[in-house]
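Example record

The entry below shows one chain as it appears in the dataset: sequence first, then structure tokens.
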Amino acid sequence: MVLLSEISNEQTARSIVLGIASGFLPFPGFQTPFLVPISFVFRLNFPLMYLFNWITNNWFTVGPITISCYLLGRQLLAMVGLPQENIEFSVTALNWELFQAIVLPLVAGSLPVTIVLPVILYLPVLVVVKRLRAANDGESWERWVSFVIIRSAD
């Protein structure tokens, strides 16, 4: 099991959080080259990072995640003073206007999410990793799961 590897709880939590955050990078295919050097430099678990990077797979990317990042980017650019115009999309409209209308807001919205998300998620993920490892070290899974179910029902 991935959580039973020899790296510390903190490294496991960092791997999970950075994998999730890298999934919000705006360009598909860039996430894996982004993760490889980070995993080696900071001695993190690359398979775990890669697994959690898939939070933005094809089922979730186009819908809520990409549209939310795009709308956030439009709002941020409007706050800075860059007005966003609605342009008519066509196959031949691959020019600066299309770039400014789609790519710029997407990048402007994705990067803050990629930076802020690990800060928010680190401590909750660390708590879950510690509890899962404690459940594997001595306690039975049934006892841990029943504890979680009883606690969540309260």
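Notes for this example: DSSP finds six helices and no strands in the chain. The chain has a mean pLDDT of 76.
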